[in-house]
Amino acid sequence: MTPRTPPPGGERLQKALTLMAAAGLVTAVLVPLRQSWRPPAERRDGFPLSYYPMFSARRRRTGTVVHLLGVDAGGESRVLHHRHAGTGGMNQVRRQMNRRVARGGAAELAAEAARSVATSSRPTERGVVEVQVVSSTHRYDDFFAGDPGPLRRTVHATATVPRPTLPAGGRR
Q1: Which domain of life is it from (predicted)?
Q2: Together in a domain, 126 and 69
């Protein structure tokens, strides 16, 4: 079998199409940079072209997040998994929690999470006796350097984890 020979001028056409596609991609990446020279009030970010403000915008030094804490009988606390607060991914559940707390539903959220913790099979959650819905404010530099302690923590609601009580003698 002999290899097919391209039609006359076919290689040049292929090269020209490749160069045009490359030039188009480079242009699509570079065009959003023109936004950086505009005054901040006039900058527009939109799909499909973006000047990537998530990388270029100034960030605050601190951030606050609503989350669940589990407290054991000795008073030690640990961050609970987001699945106790709702279904979906972490960011989706975090937004749900923010809305519920803002609308005054922290107590109901704490009670639901406490019932969820009661049925958990995770060894780290077996000793949890109380669930707290809290807002913790962290300094980013400290947190990402390994210091998990918050600058501030506000407890919005607490709920006791419902555990079955054993009858006298310790057996069922």
Answers
A1: Bacteria
A2: yes
Strand ranges, E, within 37-82: 62-72, 77-79
Q: CA 151 to CA 63: how far, in whole Å?
A: 10
Same domain, 45 and 76: no
| 119 and 76 in a common domain | yes
Are 130 and 66 part of one and the same domain? yes
C-alpha–C-alpha distance, residues 146 and 54, integer Å: 23
Angle at 56 between CA 55 and CA 60, to 5 degrees: 90
Written as tens digits, the pLDDT of the chain (172 aa) is: 666 666 666 788 899 999 999 999 998 878 777 777 788 777 776 666 666 666 666 778 999 999 999 999 999 999 999 999 999 999 999 999 999 999 999 999 999 999 999 999 888 888 999 999 999 999 989 988 998 889 999 999 999 999 876 566 555 5
Three-state secondary structure readout of 95-109: HHHHHHHHCCCHHHH
Same domain, 44 and 87: no
Contact 138, 150 (CB under 8 A): yes
Number of domains in the chain: 2
> Do residues 152 and 97 lie in contact, with contact meaning Cβ atoms separated by under 8 Å?
no
pTM over 0.70: no
Look up residue 31 and give its DSSP letter. Answer: G
Query: Can you read off the two tokens belonging to residue 76?
Result: 């030690």
